[in-house]
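Appendix B.2, paired examples.
Example (i):
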Amino acid sequence: MPEGKNRTRDFGNIYRLIYEKKQCSRQQIAEELSISLPTITHNLALLKDDGLIYTSGTFSSTGGRKANIFRCVPDARYALGIDITQNHLSIVLINLNLDIIDSERMRCPFEDTSLYYDNLQEKVEQFLNKQSLDRDKLLGIGISLPAIIESDQKTIFYATVISLLGNFYERISSCFIYPYLLFNDASSAGLAESWHSNSDKPMLYLSLSSSVGGAFMIGGKTFPGTHSHSSEFGHMCIVPHGKRCYCGCYGCLDAYCSAKVLSDFTGGNLMEFFKELSSGNPGYRRVFDEYLDYLAIAVNNLRMCYDCDVIIGGTVGSFMSDYIKDLRQKAITLNPFEKSGDYILCCHYRTEASAVGAAAHYIDQFIEEM
């Protein structure tokens, strides 16, 4: 909560209501929270003094005096998100509305070396120096990784896509002067999509990148499972005794639907694959049809288990808008209960999703602790 005198529970409740509703009048606040108008007026003044809300005009008249519209100041606070992958580094800056203020993606192969961490620190500082913002408004840094993270958001339980030592959190401590925590990349991306949808309905995010992962969101929160291993969809077996997965097992979804299954045909360049596909190359069309066949099996299985919308994300998801109807049609043929595949949706965020979701932790924390 911002420092100052007379900050009560009403202060936080009023702010959270305005944040949730996007805009409110005094009367709406009184009706929703059962608070007296003098108390509301006092706290609105405090919120304005702290630069957290502003008056943005008036509502249409209903016969009496027009009511003022109160909204939250989106740039009152910021959070930084960093997505570390095997070959790239992404940095994004978001505000309280989860709007991306700026982002940068660069090729930067991961190495567990002091040189890499020094470079990470330099890139982050250069990125922040470009922004004309008050550093005191930066809430923290969320770091997304292709790894299973323990609930303390500091301990790495499992990581094979990139080689991360168990003391990774401590090793990068010299890189940042701000609070920072670690997050699973797919769960972070799912959280970003859930927040963007502004819906409390359950939804599922399937991340198709250099590895396959996902997240299950309910009530705007990710469901971690008993051991923080929930939604490791990449290791569902869809072909018994099938292709070997990097985890050592056979027939995992990851072996059939990771981005590498497609990009390996174009020297690791996924964009080039989809460029060839859109040009009508029959060979690439056959490869992609087979890819969609396996993806449809996975999506149908997830629909049977969760009965909610399935968001196709990750690097493959960013190219799926032209092919979502094809995937829906394949999934429909596997579903005995439904004749529509409208529950299969394309992601809103592209390459920034994981970084946005990791940063969103600090936005959520700020709102909740107000």
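Example (ii):
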Amino acid sequence: MSAAVQENKMGTMPINQLLISMSVPMMISMLVQALYNVVDSMFVARISENALTAVSLAFPAQNLMIAVATGTGVGINALLSKSLGEKNFDRANQTAQNAVFLAFLSFVVFALLGLFFSGFFFRAQTDIAEIIEGGTDYLRICTIFSFGLFGQITFERLLQSTGKTFYTMITQGVGAILNIIFDPILIFGLLGFPKMGVAGAAAATVFGQIVAFFLALFINLKKNKEIQLRLKGFRPNSYIIKCIYAVGVPSIIMTSISSVMTFGMNKILIAFSSTAAAVFGVYFKLQSFVFMPVFGLNNGMVPIIAYNFGARRSDRITKTVKLSICYAVGIMLLGLLIMQLFPTALLRIFDASENMLSIGIPALRIISISFLFAGYSVICSSFFQSLGHGVLSLWVSLLRQLAVLLPLAFLFSKIGGLSTVWFAFPIAEIVSLCICTIFLRHVYRKEILPMKEK
């Protein structure tokens, strides 16, 4: 095993080839994930606009689960890849074992929250009975069966940490395809299945996640030879858990801030109309096609940086960051172009009414201006996390979403009406870019330059 790890491609392969080989499978799988998110809402929209709004209002709670799972995964990635780079195999194995333990605890917490508080969550946002009933059913299913989500993401992170991103493309792809297939079957009651409505969309989602979880577990046991998953006699290791969460908690909070922001934006928008909130939900589904590939790029980038940080290879770290920024900005520019040229066609995917089109077309065009700046900021934040400076990423997210975006959106809603609310997004992203540049210079001088001087 030692020889295999010493020859790990993250320390030897040319950076551009390595980044592409690590990231492209993840980008493809993320695009499939984005596709099934859109398909989910596309079918729900055919029930009614209130059904679409219910799913949109559920997003902050769903995003919170994803925040905990992926944030913990960032900590797992950073510690496990760094341990392999340092040839510390025992710590790598303990990291993997404690990761499984943390995934189980996270599932238990969210299952209990979903069971008892889903109804309260929707009543806090609206008094429309159809939205409350459909949304509560949807969210309860997503949380009570969330072991699939937490298990899938955790075991995929173990594969990513050892450079086996091709397998994560398979697991995510299988889960997403199953979700797409079962969405219309369970929502509309096809092929002898009961007609479940909005709850059917949730059932299809968790079914895909559960299958992907077991597939990722199987692949880890059979193919991931660089770590050993032996849970017999396992005891939680407080030091390992602390190291995981030292990086993971800022990432969890950072992503959770998005839930707070979305909840706040929904409250601002639903004061105008439920259609305005539905438009915001549709935007989030559509923008995932742009951001998901960049997040896939991040997932390929983080283990490369963490591994080479452990191996003290500053040249490989610097080149990885530069290439990642170039690729991310290119993806974002393509997304901007599509949003500017085809907003009507994008909205009609969701059976948009004339009222939704009148709100949604300017909304998509204005919000997408933020794409010009977002790619750079996303890569910088992941770079901070991969070197153990997750708090800096947290500050970027806090300032962008809670100190700038939400207050500006609220202010604009009062002085300029709905049409001006959307301008808060590009303004917040410009602020984020400035902050990221300051933090990037700080981290480079603290972590990278000392390597070059030795």
